[in-house]
Amino acid sequence: MPHVTDDGKKRRIPRAGIRPVLGAFSGALAGFSALAVAEFVSAWVRPQAGPVVAVGGAAIDRTPATVKDWAIRNFGTDDKLVLQLGILAVLALFALTLGVLALHHRPGAAAGVLLFGVVGAAAALGRPDSAGLGDALPSAVGAFAGAALLFLLAGRLEVRERTPARPDAGQENVPGRQEWDRRGFVLAAGAAAAASAGAGVLGRVLNGASGSDAVTSRRNLRLPAPASPAAEVPAGAQLRIPGVSSFMTSGKGFYRVDTALVVPKVDASAWRLRVHGQGVARPVTLSFDDLLRRELIERDITLTCVSNEVGGPYVGNARWIGVRLADLLAECGIRPPSRGGPADQLVARSVDGMTIGSPLEDVMDGRDALLAVGMNGEPLPFDHGFPVRMVVPGLYGYVSACKWIEDIELTTFDAYDPYWVRRKWAREAPIKTQSRIDTPKPFARPASGTVMVAGVAWAQHRGIDKVEVRVDDGPWQEARLAAEDSRDTWRQWSFPWQATKGGHTLTVRATDRTGTVQTEKRARTLPDGASGRHSVVLTVD
After folding, report:
1. Among the listed residues 496, 508, 505, 398, the one whose alpha carbon sits nearest the alpha carbon of residue 458
2. Rounded to an integer, what is the distance from CA 172 to the centroid of its chain?
3. What is the tens place of the pLDDT at every residue in 390-414?
4. For residue 387, cis peptide bond before it (omega within 30 degrees of 0)
5. pLDDT of 412-437, one tens digit each?
6. I need a labelling partner for 403 at 20 to 30 A (CA). Which of 8, 109, 183, 457 fits?
7. Strand pairing partners for 481?
């Protein structure tokens, strides 16, 4: 409420609770400024050096495998977005706290912001793909800007006693007013917010354009016709039943599970692949053009992520174009263990530092293991490894499907543990025989009568021989299999069920060409893939 001062003017006394609120606001604004400036600076260094990306990557590396598995199970391909939002939420709480602290101890609060910079810089420098000391700049410069802003704004909120300029005669001892620099605070906060927003938007735009050379190289790429094209997909491979997954999965619809918070954008003209290591008689470094000049083959191959739960979505089928990996390895003088070679593990390294270990025996046993350059008739999408990635039929992705590959080293399983093995996943992981009910969906309410039950089954590099369906606790009944494309692709199936009213449970199991029946024993994804039988509960009206 207004207070009449000795000079006869009305002035509003600041409410006691407003300064803590403005202090918290100052902290939030300083945090926003730090991140915006860091974003801008990262555009001149590299996007992966930004503090949120660097800290997020470090968090992923240090998160227990069970927690990662839980995140993928619950958030799916949005797990990275959830992680980044979580980091921002923690930073926001930290900034709000520092803002309140700054009202009482400005240097200490500013030091807290600088600590944020130290953490970000350390995370950036500790990444496997760190480009050197320059990676520390975004966090360091951003933290300095945030600390300076918080120190300035907190200073504007300091309450000072202001003595009247010309006290009346006989009133020399009249105490001054308790005031804080409201006008200065508003001006400083407004200017900082505008400047920070501008820096952040500009940084985002520049970061978005940082991969322009890679985008251009992909756009201008025309893949040569494969010397060994894939056979036409059999007419009966795709069932005409609503709800069944498409036999071929589009690039946009293909699952993506990896640790990259920023998708690498690699210029194909600058890309190189080095092959070296134990038992490599003739090491080689190849350019992208060198790879395209080799004989290309085209194959339909279904990939599966080890994080796929029973009945889960992380499986997809695509037509891949690439170079036979076994031929390249043989030209380098590499022999598998069965032929006396000293190495038993192929370690593939990505441009972002990821390491994937594959059994050399499997890569060279005659299956169509590829250094893939194309997917569904086009160059690889950036999300799926452009310009080059590995594809090995029959192995889970974490032991075969290295995206953005730039290095192949031959070694042994005893000598080196790649990224996922260090996190308690199995060294070797052939894909387990699995099947899934695509339709009807869980908790569906179909009408009684004939209900088409359908889905997919997969056992890459072995092939699917039979699929069976059970209703409640009844006998197993054989489903009709769609035409097979190859043993490296999934296979669709259908079963006409004469549904009766009431609640029911449908269960499916597959048998592969080795005679192995899909086990009913439930196992989680860690350490070598989930097992069990997919079932759907529904009610027939």
Report:
1. 508
2. 70
3. 999 999 999 999 999 999 999 999 9
4. yes
5. 999 999 999 999 999 999 999 999 99
6. 457
7. 493
